[in-house]
Automatic annotation (TrEMBL):
It is an enzyme of class 3 (hydrolase). Residues 47-106 form the Thioesterase domain. Its EC number is 3.1.2.-. It comes from the Bacteria. SUPFAM superfamilies: Thioesterase/thiol ester dehydrase-isomerase. This is PaaI family thioesterase. It holds the Pfam family 4HBT.
Length: 122
């Protein structure tokens, strides 16, 4: 896993992120990268990552992408209003990587749109 986050901005992962093994590894204005090892507890009965793991990881990355302030004293939070996930292929490799980019802001105080892509890493 890479780690490009300003140490002053590093946050303690949420209990869900800790349980699932998600790690925020890059976070800048309008961008976030979340990585997770493909561990046994993330797999479905076919031995593939559960679709809910993908969704949770995408949701986490998109939330962080829209909440960057660049100031450790100013924390921005978000709630997902709507999200669509299209599953195109099954995972391979040792890690999942979700990279999210903010694509638009309707109202900086209330909402943003983001696009996130999940890729495997070896």
């Amino acid at each position: 896993m890479s780690d490009k986050i300003d140490p002053a901005l590093r946050e303690t992962p949420s209990p869900l992120s800790q349980t699932l093994g998600f790690e925020l590894t890059d976070w800048t204005e309008g961008f976030a990268r979340v990585e997770a090892p493909l561990a046994d507890h993330l797999m479905n009965r076919q031995g593939l990552p559960h679709g809910g793991v993908y969704a949770a990881m995408l949701d986490t990355a998109m939330g962080f992408a829209g909440c960057y302030t660049g100031d450790a004293e100013v924390r921005q939070n978000a709630l997902t209003l709507s999200m669509t996930v299209n599953y195109l292929s099954r995972a391979s490799g040792n890690y999942l990587i979700a990279e999210a980019h903010v694509t638009g802001v309707e109202n900086p105080r209330f909402s943003h749109a983001a696009r996130c892509v999940m890729t495997p890493a070896h």
